[in-house]
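Reading is simple: the token line describes the chain's fold. The lines below illustrate.

. . .
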Amino acid sequence: MQSSTTSAQLHIRRRQLISQIEDLDQIRRGSITEQFVESVRQDGTKARRGPYTLYSFKDKGGRTISRRLTDPAQIAHYRSQIEAFRQFQQCTAELLALGEALCDRALQEPDTEKKTPSTHSKTKAKKRSKL
């Protein structure tokens, strides 16, 4: 974040990012790649078949799951969902950076004082008066 950015500007950008995230309806993890399969014919020559469209993602256990996609409309739909997920990741990364910048600002700005008085000093005063 730039040092000349005010806290109000950071809050405005934060609201914009949250709005962008709200607008992302269908998101999907993973990627789409083209797969080629090589095989050896009976006469010993190699044959390359494909490309086959492959959708891959990691499950909760960290294993890679892959599915072949055949319908061009489905492939386009998956691509748009994956792109939406990448936008989601960019927004959340920027949101995290904004949150950290706002935390730093809160520590630096003198007008952000504690609203409740310290109880520590009152306790010491009571102990002194009892002595």
Summary: The mean pLDDT is 87. The chain has three helices and three strands.
